[in-house]
Amino acid sequence: MNFITGKHLSRRSFLRGMGASVALPMLDAMVPAGRGWRDLAAEPGGTRLICIEEVMGSAGSSPLGLERHLFEPLTIGRNFELGPESQLLPLEDFRDYLTVVTNTDCQMAEAWTPEEIGGGHNRTTAVFLTQSHPKRTQGSDLFVGRSLDQLHVQRYGQEMPLPSLQLDTESDTGGGGGGYHAHYAHRISWASPSEPLPAIRSPRVAFERIFGQGYSPEDRAARLETRRSLLDRIGEEVSRLRISLGASDRAAMDGFLEDVREIERRIELVEARNSSGEERALPEAPIDIPDSWMEHMEIMFDLQVLALESDLTRVISFKTGRDSSSRIFPESGVLKAFHATSHHANVHDVIYDYQQINTYRLSAMRYLLEKLRDTTEAGVPLLDKTAILWGSAMGDPNVHSNSRCPLILIGKANGALEGNVHIKAPDGTPMANAFVSLLRGIGHDDVHFFGDSTGLLPLTSPNHTGHPATGISRTGAA
User: Fold this and answer.
1) 119: containing domain
2) 449 part of a folded domain
3) Rg (CA), the chain
């Protein structure tokens, strides 16, 4: 552990033991004499950033979806109104944290040459956070652009124990069609235009990455042999630190460690269930991958909150599926494969089936938002200190359109996001314009362009409130 004095605890303190390393949450003992919680909470670069890709666009971007407001709110500005069939209804309780952005395009994912036609699935994922057009290649000469999350890492994440964390929910096998390298279809984070960052699908591997344990097969086998939990391995350090902490800090540390132990238990239960010999819904998946998509999402969200709470990292990217996935989501009420349903052929009943799947998938976000709202740092909910970027570089998946793509910015981002507002962009506005505004709001004052941006798309409410979302261009876009 790193102590500055006998009474002051470093913000970069770790509990260590037997290959484990656990960063602590913010404690009173970490506040230097003469400074308050609020001073530390407002430090530059303190905004957390979570980028979540939703593949295959939205039923709300189809002609019927636009007409029936299946994604786009009924009104623009503050206190927007949602339609009775809106995909956003599961997040209604969090409207004060929602900045809904509609009618933006990701034209960098379009085919630019005849040879690129048919490669849409492989371009959209790479375009989402880069807003740049991928070079068509299956060799090592990959090229697209540095992603938005890695711009934040470059400026504010280099001193973090874990500069960024990349997570996934599906296997990275397959992809690479249309003359494109498979990395374009599987990677949303790019450290440079030619350097895609691999993502972790396994909850066990993610847990071990976050808590500083070796996660080679040999390391994992050794831990299984001893059957000792993470907290057992750092128990001596915990006991020693507890003696020097005040009552409130002891309670905060104990609560955090119990959360760590609970997620470890959840992973262990999944592994036990999947190794029991019972038939699995995902027979090809490793034993620590839940058969339930929602359970997998919740575990990955738990891990993200722990990583942010301990300030181990401030930047996370999360890919929640594959464009070409044939997965079925029975909990949505639709027993049809994801990708097949996305190609709805403008059949109304099939569009509504896809809408049900979309709504179910977005409802998983409630779990993350509740966790971030209920977890505080310096007396402020993490949700107020975080910018969550959720969206897709695809609009209507039936025709692989990259226009009118769904985008939601969630959280307050330390004041950069207003919340409870629907921003409808003028026709032809690049999604990258919203990204420039977000970047400038979270400390990148010198960023004037990103991807194919043409200016700023203000993320605060226009002067008028509650006007119908008719498609009329609003003022304020640069």
Assistant:
1) 50-201+314-468
2) yes
3) 22
Q: How much is the pTM? A: 0.92
Q: Within a 10 A sphere around the Cβ of 333, how many other Cβ atoms?
A: 11
Q: How confident is the model at residue 3 (pLDDT cuts 50, 70, 90)?
A: very low
Distance CA 8, CA 18 (A): 25
353 and 426 share one domain: yes
- Residue 52, classed as helix, strand or coil, is strand
Digit-coded pLDDT (tens) for 33-66: 655 545 444 565 789 999 999 999 999 999 999 9
Alpha-carbon torsion (151, 417, 103, 445), positive or negative: negative
Q: In what helix (H) or strand (E) does residue 14 lie, and over which residues does it extend?
A: strand 14-17
Amino acid at position 34, single letter: G
- Between CA 85 and CA 333 the distance in angstroms is 15
Q: How is 227-269 classified by DSSP, letter by letter?
A: T--HHHHTHHHHHHHHHHS-HHHHHHHHHHHHHHHHHHHHHHH
In a domain, 307, yes or no: no
Indicate the helix (H) or strand (E) that contains 309.
helix 293-309
User: Which of 431, 430, 422, 436 lies closest to 471, judged by CA?
Assistant: 422
Give the DSSP H or E segment for 298.
helix 293-309
pLDDT in tens, 293-309: 999 999 999 999 999 99
What are the tens digits of pLDDT across the range 72-101?
A: 999 999 999 999 999 999 999 999 999 999
Helix (H, G, I), strand (E, B) or coil at 171: coil
d(CA 15, CA 245) in angstroms, rounded, equals 14
Helix/strand/coil (H, E, C) string of 58-127? CHHHCHHHHHCCCCCCCEEEECCCCCCCCCCHHHHHHHHHEEEEEEEECHHHCCCCHHHCCCHHHHHHHH
Please check whether residues 110 and 240 belong to one and the same domain: no
One-character DSSP codes across 392-444: -S-S-GGGT--SSEEEEEES-GGGT---SEEEEEEEEEEHHHHHHHHHHHTT-
Q: Report the alpha-carbon distance of residue 49 to residue 149 in Å, rounded.
A: 7
Contact of 468 with 75, CB cutoff 8 Å: yes
- Domain's final residue, options 270, 288, 306: 288
Average pLDDT, the chain: 89
Q: Do 56 and 36 share a structural domain? A: no
pLDDT category at 219 given cuts 50, 70, 90 is low
pLDDT of residue 215: 47
| DSSP, res 289 | S
Report which of 378, 443, 411 is spatially closest to residue 97, judged by C-alpha positions. Answer: 411
Q: How many domains does the chain have?
A: 2
Q: Pick 133 or 29 by higher pLDDT.
A: 133
pLDDT at 447 over 70: yes
- Does one domain contain both 191 and 253? no
